[in-house]
Write a sequence for this structure.
């Protein structure tokens, strides 16, 4: 972890030089680059094989202590043997404890110095904002002197670095040792090795993924925004940090240290034992403190990042060094907890990431708008109805997530002052969830995500000049502005995700129908042409017919069709999408029968997740053998009239999960493992779940 502190501070310094608003720093550019170079020496020392071995030894000891009850005899012996061998290979086994204590003391000095320096940089950036030219020159000169002072302190610490003697072949000896010890390692031991071998940036990314609830996790896009705001991605000219963060998460998934949630597409969490082990190591280093289901929480004065899940009572902290705070509650915050939170926020003047979930806040605490270093603010599942104008004080804010707010939420003009804003996610808890944004939103030239906006009020024209957008969610689309809206969206050539939902009308389509959205038609789609890079498309509202342009979307990987109520088979066009992995049809088809024409051999070549929900579906006759060759999960929700499983279900050999929710009792009886006559169709599926209203309620294999 020590290398991580050094590298993150180097990234911070380089980022300061890249920011255009800090052109005044060009006068001290040489001093900053000189300090970065000196830190290279520190990083090189900390990455030495000898000290990597010492850290590996301590990691193995922590792992053995944490998982001892779960380790078998073979695993315990293997871990003890590994620790002994690591001592032997260093050649200083008799004195290893003393050397380790010297190393920890030295690292602590480096860490403390860099923490102070990091906070000093933050203070300087805030101080010069709005100063006169003369005051800026004086502050910059003072800053340059302090940079030189920091460099001198780092040099002095480097000169006192531990210098143990060791074999020149140590690096090769370590490689041989690890290969011999772990080629046939047990799963827990292999997990420890995987953790130890993670690069520093991936290890920190993994840790921040542990900040959220394991039960539901977070979407990959949510995790990306947190990693960028926390400074865990190096900023480079001409590159988007979000792309690098996404790449890091993909690497964690490939390594098995981050996994997609079972039955929830695109939600990710850290699996056991990586979750427990990561937090154990970080808690021990006072770097990242996490607690769950605790009546009280005392935040360590040195903790940089804190996660409090399902907080129940008091939070105590005099820590003014925090950079990240994650708080979630079950049923909102009590008055006592809310008061404690305000005190914590008052002290945490260097906070960069603040995520408040299910807190049911009625108003934004005044302390939040004074957190001038804040880059990420999430206040989700609240009962906020407004944001104060002073939200504009958060001039470093990159992400503002106010999803699932109060019933009459509106966005204040203060948000237009958030020049660094990259992601704006919004929704309210009534009507169609739309949020009206103030005129001038197009002034936010760094904005990549704009979700939950009301389609009217002149926003359609403004969208046309927001060509930097990559994710757009527009609600309450109607005939009044559809043509202008679509023309603007077609100009957004960088767009990767698009969601369009119709404005709902309360009256039924006819006297015999009360089907939701059946009278709310998504207008003018035939005149629309999707941006070329679009990967995710969500259409919510009635369609007369499926637009022909849908079949030409070669980059599309996710398609959500909700309340479309199509009369004809929608898969005739969709099945030829070459890269489609996720298909959600929620009352997309109003027919009563699906036959083999829906899922034929050769169609949907890469589809992995299929979600079907229908109020009308009575019969699903057949899936052709050889169809859906990559399907991993089939979800059948609210198909209350469907009584028979389709023939051919048994041929879906790649299927890992069958999830059924609120379906007909006859369907469940036929598939039941307790004598169901058609259980043979699902015996090959590893995980089968049913949730519903039957007398026996729930079964899961």
């Amino acid at each position: 972890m020590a290398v991580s502190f050094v590298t993150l501070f180097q990234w911070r310094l380089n980022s300061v030089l890249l920011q255009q608003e800090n052109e005044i720093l060009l006068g001290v550019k040489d001093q900053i680059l000189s300090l970065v170079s000196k830190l290279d020496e520190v990083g090189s020392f900390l990455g030495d094989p000898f000290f990597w071995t010492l850290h590996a030894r301590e990691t193995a000891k922590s792992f053995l202590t944490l998982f001892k009850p779960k380790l078998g005899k073979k695993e315990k012996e293997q871990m003890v043997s590994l620790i002994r061998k690591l001592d032997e290979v260093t050649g200083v086994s008799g004195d290893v404890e003393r050397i380790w204590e010297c190393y920890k003391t030295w690292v602590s000095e480096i860490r403390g110095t860099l923490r102070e320096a990091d906070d000093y940089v933050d203070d300087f950036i805030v101080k010069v904002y709005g100063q006169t030219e003369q005051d800026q020159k004086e502050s910059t000169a003072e800053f340059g002197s302090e940079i030189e002072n920091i460099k001198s302190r780092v040099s002095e610490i480097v000169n006192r670095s531990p210098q143990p003697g060791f074999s020149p072949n140590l690096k090769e000896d370590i490689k041989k040792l690890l290969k011999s010890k772990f080629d046939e390692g047990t799963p827990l031991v292999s997990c420890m090795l995987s953790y130890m071998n993670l690069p520093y940036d991936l290890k920190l990314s993994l840790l921040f993924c542990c900040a959220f609830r394991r039960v539901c996790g977070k979407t990959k896009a949510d995790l990306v925004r947190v990693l960028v705001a926390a400074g865990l991605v190096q900023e480079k000219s001409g590159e988007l940090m979000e792309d690098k963060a996404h790449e890091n998460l993909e690497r964690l998934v490939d390594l098995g240290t981050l996994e997609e949630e079972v039955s929830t597409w695109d939600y990710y969490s850290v699996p056991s034992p990586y979750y427990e082990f990561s937090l154990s190591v970080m808690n021990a280093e006072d770097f990242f403190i996490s607690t769950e289901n605790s009546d009280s929480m005392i935040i360590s004065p040195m903790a940089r990042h804190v996660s409090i899940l399902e907080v129940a009572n008091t939070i105590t902290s005099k820590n003014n060094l925090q950079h990240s705070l994650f708080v979630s509650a079950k049923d909102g915050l009590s008055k006592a907890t809310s008061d404690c939170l305000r005190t914590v926020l008052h002290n945490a003047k260097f906070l960069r990431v603040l995520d408040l979930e299910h807190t049911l806040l009625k108003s934004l605490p005044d302390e939040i708008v004074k957190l001038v270093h804040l880059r990420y603010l999430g206040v989700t599942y609240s009962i906020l109805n407004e944001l104060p104008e002073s939200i504009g004080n958060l001039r470093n804010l990159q992400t503002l997530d106010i999803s699932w707010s109060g019933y009459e939420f509106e966005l204040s003009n203060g948000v237009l002052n958030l020049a660094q804003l990259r992601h704006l996610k919004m929704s309210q808890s009534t009507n169609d969830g739309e949020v009206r944004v103030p005129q001038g939103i197009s002034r936010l030239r760094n904005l990549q995500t704009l979700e939950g906006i009301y389609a009217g009020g002149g926003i359609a024209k403004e969208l046309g000049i927001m060509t930097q957008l990559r994710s757009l969610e527009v609600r309450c689309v109607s005939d009044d502005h559809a043509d202008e809206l679509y023309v603007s969206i077609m100009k957004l050539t960088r767009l990767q995700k698009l969601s369009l939902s119709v404005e709902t009308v309360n009256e039924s389509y006819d006297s015999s129908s009360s089907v939701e959205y059946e009278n709310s038609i998504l207008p003018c789609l035939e005149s629309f042409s999707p941006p070329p890079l679009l990967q995710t498309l969500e259409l919510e509202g009635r369609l007369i017919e499926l637009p022909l342009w849908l079949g030409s979307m070669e980059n599309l990987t996710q398609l959500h069709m909700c309340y479309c109520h199509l009369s004809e088979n929608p898969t005739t066009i969709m099945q030829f999408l070459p890269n489609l992995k996720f298909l959600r049809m929620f009352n997309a088809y109003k027919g009563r029968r699906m036959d083999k024409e829906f899922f034929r051999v050769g169609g949907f070549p890469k589809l992995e997740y299929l979600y079907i929900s229908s109020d009308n579906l009575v019969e699903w006759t057949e899936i052709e053998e050889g169809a859906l060759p990559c399907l991993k999960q089939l979800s059948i929700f609210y198909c209350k009239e469907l009584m028979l499983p389709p023939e051919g279900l048994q041929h879906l050999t790649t299927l890992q999960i069958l999830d059924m929710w609120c379906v007909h009792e006859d369907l469940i009886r036929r598939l039941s493992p307790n004598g169901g006559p058609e259980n043979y169709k699902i015996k090959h599926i590893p995980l089968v779940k049913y949730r519903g209203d039957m007398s026996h309620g729930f079964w899961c294999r």
In short: Residues 507-514, 694-698 have pLDDT under 50 and may be disordered. The chain has 17 helices and 25 strands. Residues 416 and 443 are 7 Å apart (CA to CA).
